[in-house]
Specification:
This protein has one domain: TIM Barrel, CATH 3.20.20. The protein is built from twelve helices and eight strands. Strands 1-2-3-4-5-6-7-8 form an eight-stranded parallel beta barrel, surrounded by five helices. The site of 1,3-dihydroxyacetonephosphate has 14 residues, from strand 8.
């Protein structure tokens, strides 16, 4: 059966020393605790190796927040999936709405990144989600379906089985305006139905679909109690152990 996952996305926060400190604190807080979900922290690139070294890998997986769509070579400033894997990180967050919007990541570029991530033994946490105007004009299901189809549906069933999805309605990210548990469940069930149609019940039922967008200690329990919400991708509330632990413990 699919895993429950609580993943933090630190975004562009914390210098190296602060990030290492936060990872240490989280590692300590999880020691000796029985946790009913996998825990992942998505750090900036420069933190990956240090953080992967510090944390107990049985308890905490480390994620990059991006990787290059090229294998290697003359791409100044880029970081390849192979480099990410060499740090000890196990996941790569891909297709975050901030990368789609500010860095013009297209479905095609994301398809390349997903392929390289899988080729290097990493798990993509693939983000999808509509903007407010799309929801208000009732295009949100079509938008989310296209994001999945255009970047992921050329994968074999075996490769698709390695993907984690994160539904992050853009209007809920960093706004304090969370999707209601019913809105989250409705979209997650739609996503799962889309996966059933393409890959069948087994792959669809084994795919973890996380919710992201102003998820925190106050709303995590209710969000995670929905049958198709398998965890969260947490931004702001992942930046301190005090705020992140209650989200982890919501399972
Ligand atoms: P917030 O939890 O800060 O709204 O961010 C969500 C997010 O974008 C996680 O990737």
């Amino acid at each position: 059966m699919r895993k429950n996952i609580v993943a933090g996305n630190w975004k562009m926060n914390k210098n190296l020393q602060e990030g290492v400190e936060l990872a240490k604190e989280l590692n300590e807080a999880l020691k000796g605790k029985t946790i009913n979900c996998d825990v992942v922290i998505g750090t900036p690139f420069i933190h990956l190796a240090a953080v992967a070294n510090i944390v107990d890998s049985d308890k905490i997986g480390v994620a990059a927040q991006n990787c290059a769509n090229k294998v290697s070579g003359a791409y100044t400033g880029e970081v390849s999936a192979e480099m990410v894997a060499s740090t000890g990180a196990k996941y790569v967050i891909l297709g975050h709405s901030e990368r789609r919007a500010y860095y013009h990541e297209t479905a095609e570029i994301l398809k390349e990144k997903v392929g390289l991530t899988l080729a290097n033994g990493l798990t993509p946490i693939f983000c999808i989600g509509e903007v407010l105007e799309e929801r208000e004009s009732e295009k949100h299901f079509d938008v989310v379906k296209s994001q999945i189809v255009d970047s992921l549906f050329e994968l074999s069933a075996e490769d698709f089985g390695k993907i984690v999805l994160a539904y992050e309605p853009v209007w809920a990210i960093g706004t304090g305006k969370t999707a209601s548990p019913a809105q989250a469940q409705e979209m997650h069930a739609f996503i799962r139905k889309t996966l059933v149609e393409k890959y069948g019940n087994e792959v669809a039922n084994n795919t973890s679909i996380l919710y992201g967008g102003s998820a925190n200690a106050d709303n995590a329990k209710e969000l995670f109690s929905n049958p198709d919400v398998d965890g969260g991708l947490i931004g702001g509330a992942s930046l301190s152990v005090d705020k992140f632990m209650p989200v982890i413990e919501a399972f």
